[in-house]
Specification:
mainly alpha; single chain
Length: 163
């Protein structure tokens, strides 16, 4: 009956201001690392031994040759655009998406009660998803309060990039 205690009435009270503040203050770079695109993260020094493996649908020979030519033709532009984007701070929409995802993740942590997401059944996950969906206003409030922290983390990413 551990699963029932997770969703009992005493656990469904509203979140207080102190809990919201705790969610915002506890956010760190490690918590939102996976919210960044692969292009926005630079790992120093780059590891040449690890090769990226991409799973794509199979292409025939002429499609492969055409894509190879396009990539060779645009390689300089793509590299230049990537370097330029890395030097700039993420735009407001990207930061808002990241803060919304971080807020949802913090709600997940709260509803899991110390258990791992993998240990839940599909029905329990659906119940938590419904509870999170019903609290959109609270999640948007947490996301709004996370925005200054997101900007700080993003600016620290840019300052540590050159050090």
């Amino acid at each position: 009956m551990q699963a029932y205690s997770l969703f009992s009435e005493e656990r469904q009270e509203d979140i207080t201001e102190d809990e919201i503040k705790k969610h915002v203050d506890d956010l760190s770079w490690v918590d939102i690392f996976d919210l960044y695109n692969h292009d926005e993260i630079v790992i120093d020094p780059p590891d040449e031994s690890v090769e990226d493996e991409f799973v794509e649908e199979s292409l025939n020979q002429s499609q492969r040759m055409r894509r190879a030519l396009i990539m060779k033709r645009n390689a300089y532009r793509i590299a230049l655009a990537r370097r330029t984007k890395l030097l700039r701070m993420s735009d407001q929409n990207t930061l808002a998406k990241r803060s919304m995802l971080a807020a949802k993740r913090s709600m997940w942590k709260r509803f899991l009660g110390g258990r791992s997401k993998d240990s839940l059944s599909a029905q329990e996950k659906a119940m938590i998803e419904d509870r999170i969906a019903s609290r959109k206003k609270l999640i948007s409030t947490i996301a709004t309060r996370l925005m200054p922290k997101m900007r700080t983390i993003e600016s620290s990413r840019l300052t540590h990039r050159f050090s």
